[in-house]
């Protein structure tokens, strides 16, 4: 049975879900655990709803999956040697100038070129991973481009309680109102079969951090992917964002992030909630309540970067993941 052989005395199989900078930080942390042989099988499952920037332009012109978040995940899994670091810089390089190439990332173009050559999303991403010497596999969460829609309260000045439909990942991420719910168009996309297989065999699933409504929750809205997350024997770790995201989660504290995720998928069994130490006592008390109501345990650790941005530090996040995966934390830790 998948997961029935779970044990801290062997390397673990991990599937990380998300997109953008949040998933990038999580994968950089998990890649360190691959190097330390704590994790022996690492898979990233990535959102495919981006409609902005280079990804949006390529999606619009060629009708392909938006490659940007997939590229960032691949870059995060590059090795620390000269080969890996060189390819990471190449993948992330964006063209300057004033012409049509302005703003395109090299990795986006490479991925789309391989899709056109091979006609297979997964085979092409696996080939890029081989080129990079990737420490894990990168998969799309669905095989067709998706659009995110949101019901947003507070956009109508004549009626502050009225709900307005906002469409598009960029638009949802930057909306000025309060998001009450997100959905996908189409509503029942085809999930990536390899992602479903990875979830069935995983020991651990990591959900978050990242743009909560546009990168994290969408995984729970793909019917087959949602079912796989609910039915897997893997233990699910929810990694909370460090701060609100203006527009998308304005005014959210740690407990609000967890509560809205549970609201979108009440059947999901959450094993561990990972939060940063930088909370005031009221925030921590509220998070304890919401975590307990979800039937999960709370781990509070120092995982934030010191650079002043609300981003996770990969090394600190790796240490927290290692403690969780190896069973070194059995009850709430308060970081003291």
UniProtKB/TrEMBL annotation:
Places the protein is found: Cytoplasm
InterPro entries in UniProt: CofD, CofD-like_dom_sf, Gluconeogen_factor
Protein keywords: Cytoplasm
Entry GO MF terms: LPPG:FO 2-phospho-L-lactate transferase activity
Key word Metal-binding present: no
Coiled coil spans: none
GO cellular component, one term: cytoplasm
Top-rank taxon, per record: Bacteria
Pfam families named in the record: CofD
GO biological process: regulation of cell shape
Main location: cytoplasm
Entry's family note: Belongs to the gluconeogenesis factor family.
Function as written in the Swiss-Prot or TrEMBL entry: Required for morphogenesis under gluconeogenic growth conditions.
The name this protein goes by in its record: Putative gluconeogenesis factor
Provenance organism: Nocardioides dokdonensis FR1436
């Amino acid at each position: 049975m998948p997961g029935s052989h779970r044990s801290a005395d062997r390397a673990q199989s991990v599937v990380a879900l998300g997109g953008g900078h949040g998933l990038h930080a999580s994968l950089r942390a998990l890649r360190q655990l691959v190097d330390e042989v704590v994790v022996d099988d690492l898979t990233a499952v990535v959102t495919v709803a981006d409609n902005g920037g280079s990804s949006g332009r390529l999606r619009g012109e060629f009708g392909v999956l938006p490659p940007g978040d997939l590229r960032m995940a691949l870059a995060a899994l590059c090795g620390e040697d000269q080969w890996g670091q060189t390819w990471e810089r190449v993948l992330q390089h964006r063209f300057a100038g004033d012409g049509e190439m302005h703003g395109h990332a090299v990795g986006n173009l490479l991925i789309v070129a391989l899709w056109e050559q091979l006609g297979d999303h997964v085979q092409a991403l696996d080939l890029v991973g081989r080129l990079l010497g990737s420490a894990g596999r990168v998969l799309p969460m669905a095989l067709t481009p998706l659009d995110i829609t949101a019901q947003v309260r507070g956009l109508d000045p004549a009626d502050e309680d009225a709900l307005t439909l906002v469409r598009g990942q960029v638009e949802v991420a930057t909306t000025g109102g309060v998001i009450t719910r997100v959905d996908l168009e189409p509503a029942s996309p085809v999930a990536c079969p390899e992602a479903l297989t990875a979830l069935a065999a995983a020991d651990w699933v990591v959900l978050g951090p990242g743009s909560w409504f546009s990168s994290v929750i969408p995984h729970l809205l793909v019917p087959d992917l949602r079912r796989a997350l609910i039915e897997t024997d893997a233990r699910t770790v929810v990694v909370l964002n460090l701060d609100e995201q203006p527009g998308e989660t304005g005014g959210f504290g740690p407990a609000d992030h967890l509560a809205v995720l549970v609201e979108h998928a009440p059947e999901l069994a959450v094993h561990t909630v990972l939060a940063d130490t930088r909370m005031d006592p009221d925030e921590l008390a509220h998070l304890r309540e919401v975590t307990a109501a979800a039937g999960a345990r709370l781990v509070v650790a120092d995982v934030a970067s010191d650079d002043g941005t609300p981003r996770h530090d990969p090394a600190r996040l790796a240490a927290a993941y290692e403690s969780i995966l190896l069973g070194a934390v059995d009850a709430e830790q308060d970081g003291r």
